[in-house]
Amino acid sequence: MNNNLDFYIRRVHSISGLVPIGFFLLEHIFSISTVLAGGGAFDATVAKLAAIPHEIMLPLEIIAIAIPFLFHALYGLYITFNAKNNPGSYGYTRNWQFYLQRMTALYLAVFLIWHVGYLRIMVKGSGLPINYEFMHAYLSNPIVLVLYCIGIVAAIFHFTNGLFTMAITWGITVGPRSQAVVNKMAWGLCVVLAIVGVMATIRFAA
């Protein structure tokens, strides 16, 4: 690929991970976290989202979520299969982060096809309500629960580590000290969001 073209595509890929995909992830975590206040609180959150007219929601999902996600995912997989991962050779933390960024991309590619294909297309598309009762039955399967917990942690790590690498890519952090600070902040955000996401997922199965 032409170096100049690759330069710009990588930056579009980087920013698309934050806007709108990152915002959607944060909204998703907030929505499922309402279950920690009880099934009724989650159903109320779902009802608010369902109240958005279909004529608005469908174009929004396609333009603001599906298209950016497909671009980010496809180009991300291209980067993954062309990356030289070497955590075993060097063992530095950032090399492991580089490696895990690629591995979570692969897991998420499969996980999101399953997640979106089943819940958004098959279940919601058929007119069945996605409420606490449905999610409780769905996530009571221990295999599904574990795979979802892994998927949530993978998505959160991929997002927060992506924030760190985006800060470097866009020249926001240029020195080792600023990069170290942003990296620690990203890890802190990752831990907080992962705890909330996993607790909420387990709460559905309780």
TrEMBL record:
One annotated GO molecular function: metal ion binding
Keyword Heme among record annotations: yes
A Pfam family per the record: Sdh_cyt
Keywords, sorted A to Z: Heme, Iron, Membrane, Metal-binding, Transmembrane, Transmembrane helix
Listed GO CC annotations: membrane
Compartment(s) of residence: Membrane
Segments traversing the membrane: 21-42, 62-83, 104-123, 143-173, 185-205
Coiled coil feature spans: none
Primary subcellular site in the record, as a coarse category: membrane
NCBIfam families for this protein: sdhC_b558_fam
Protein's recorded name: Succinate dehydrogenase cytochrome b558 subunit
